[in-house]
Amino acid sequence: GPKVYLRPKESVLIPLKxxxxxxxxxxxxxxxSFLPPGKGSQFGPATEVSALSKPPTLFxxxxxxxxxxxxxxVLRVNVEPTPHVVDQTFRLYHPELCFLKKAIRLxxxxxxxxxxxxxxxxxxxxTTGVSVRCSDxxxxxxxxxxxxxxxxxxxxxxxxxxxxxxxxxxxxxxTDKWMAAPSQIWQFYVHFLERVDVSCVxxxxxxxxxxxxxxxxxxxxxxxxxxxxxxxxDPEGVFVLPPAxxxxxxxxxxxxxxxxxxxxxxxxDVEHRRLINSWLVCLNxxxxxxxxxxxxxxxxxxxxxxxxxxxxTNPYTSRRTFLLRSDHPDLLQFKEDRFQIGGGESYSIGLxxxxxxxxxxxxxxxxxxxxxxxxxxxFSVKVNYT
Length: 386
Hints:
3 domains, mainly beta, 386 residues, Immunoglobulin-like, 48% strand, 8-stranded mixed sheet
């Protein structure tokens, strides 16, 4: 350790430095601060569950010895951890039991600590010594030295957990070689979800069955989706999940745009407001086959927009009911969302285009679906705002 030479009756100030990269990774309880009484909870009616409880005080001991190892003084240091300032918060979603590999580019923030005053406006680049530390020792966190002028990335490798676990940790970025004070502190929440792959066609309704397994107690469960307009769940409301039982949840997906998208579906205990299970729905959406293509010119800054009619013929020999859908409901409205025609008869679909204040063109898809939301025909309407 360090040595200090003292003359008789001389006093000196001894600086102390305490630094720890470990922290409490426990997450807050899901639900209100006070649990309702009489709900079968292990907490009493007046028991408060707070995630902002004060961390325990740490006691450290510092000893001062002479050259002959004679004990001169013993100093007890009480370290009270205080919450730190979080510069950025990241919330990531990943399939369960899989390693999460993520590269995050460092932002060009200014005024790194410990730099001279005339260099405060200098950008943080590869010439600056950057070190990173993670609060969880089980997570691989590192950065690489690059050539000057190239952006710097922080690489993370997080071990997976079963659904619906949430892993929380902190990443500290240092720009001084002594790692005395972090320049930035990032907080990460990694949600591990059960992955469900669905392939479907835009405009059509696809069905997928999910399995929800009961625990040791009876639960009242309800499912919530991240996109309620495109994902419907059956049962829709609250249902009872018996202990050690298997409940089949039917998911109905009806996306409106082609491409790859990610939705989230959560099963929640409505009484205790606890998360039971989560699904990561990975959609591979294909573009439908177009039957006809139309082009419409709409004046810019018009008050009434524009109207157009499209003829549709019933391909069946019996009387059928059809539904009209659009991937841009904010720009296109139908005169009637539902119509019924006989076998082989024709019907004029009334379209009403909303006005716009800017010029340009938009491609709008019009779906003619059956009552089972199966697409019979798809029309493409190119709207030119001039």
